[in-house]
Design a protein that fits this description.
The complex is a heterodimer of chains A (about 110) and B (about 110).
Chain A: E1 4-5, E2 10-14, E3 19-25, E4 32-38, E5 45-51, E6 56-59, E7 62-67, E8 72-77, E9 86-93, E10 101-102, E11 106-111
Chain B: E1 5-7, E2 10-13, E3 19-24, E4 31-37, E5 43-50, E6 53-56, E7 65-68, E8 75-79, E9 88-95, E10 103-104, E11 108-112
Parallel strand pairs in B: 2-11
Antiparallel strand pairs in B: 1-3, 3-8, 4-5, 4-9, 5-6, 7-8, 9-10, 9-11
Classes of the chains: A mainly beta (about 110), B mainly beta (about 110).
């Protein structure tokens, strides 16, 4: 049973526009959420995180929104750049746990 | 300050052989995590270790897989008698403390032929 779901395997966006990547989770014990970016043949790189006490966290072009009642979070990238083309993984954890639970990823392609 | 170092980057093994994957955490990090990524899948947690201790191995297959993080040297993920289904990318991550963000290594791509 997948506890973290990224239902869109891929997303294509034009340079300069907004990219919105979505993630749903089922475990209400999760209270910490992260987004990772991954290029081919490299390990995931941490992008941004959000704690369940917040509903928004912003870092430069990246903003993560959390809707706890819907068990949904999203990553907004604006403006999108060709260098943002990568696989984006959503991950979740509970503060007492040690394991991050990852979604299957969404491949973002930003065209110039 | 070097990041998380994994070696080898690529490993080819015949069915029935042993695979040893090594991970050196970032300097100052004493928590190591191993994840596996099968093709078209997300990363799946395998095991969490601190120096000389396995803290959480709930994601480890019950047979053939073992992990250690000795007092000196890198963490080792060992897969005995490999099968084709073990072919995957194995990522190691480290953190300074539980709950801190992870830093991932570049992974070891295991191919079983």
């Amino acid at each position: 049973d997948q506890q973290v779901k990224q239902n869109s395997p891929s997303l294509s966006v034009q340079e300069g526009r907004i990219s919105i990547l979505n993630c749903d989770y089922t475990n209400s014990m999760f209270d910490y959420f992260l987004w990772y970016k991954k290029y081919p043949a490299e390990g995931p790189t941490f992008l941004i995180s959000i704690s369940s006490i917040k509903d928004k966290n912003e870092d430069g072009r990246f903003t993560v929104f959390l809707n706890k009642s819907a068990k949904h979070l999203s990553l907004h990238i604006v403006p999108s750049q060709p260098g943002d083309s990568a696989v984006y993984f959503c991950a979740a954890a509970n503060q007492a746990g040690t394991a991050l639970i990852f979604g299957k990823g969404t491949t973002l392609s930003v065209s110039s | 300050n070097a990041g998380v170092m994994q070696n080898p980057r690529h490993l080819v093994r015949r069915r029935g052989q042993e695979a040893r994957l090594r991970c050196s955490p970032m300097k100052g990090h004493s928590h190591v995590y191993w994840y596996r990524q099968l093709p078209e899948e997300g990363l799946k947690f395998m095991v969490y270790l601190q120096k000389e201790n396995i803290i959480d191995e709930s994601g480890m297959p019950k047979e053939r897989f073992s992990a250690e993080f000795p007092k000196e040297g890198p963490s080792i993920l060992r897969i005995q008698q490999v099968v084709r289904g073990d072919s995957a990318a194995y990522f190691c991550a480290s953190s300074q403390a539980v709950g801190d963000g992870y830093t991932f290594g570049s992974g070891t791509r295991l191919t079983v032929v």
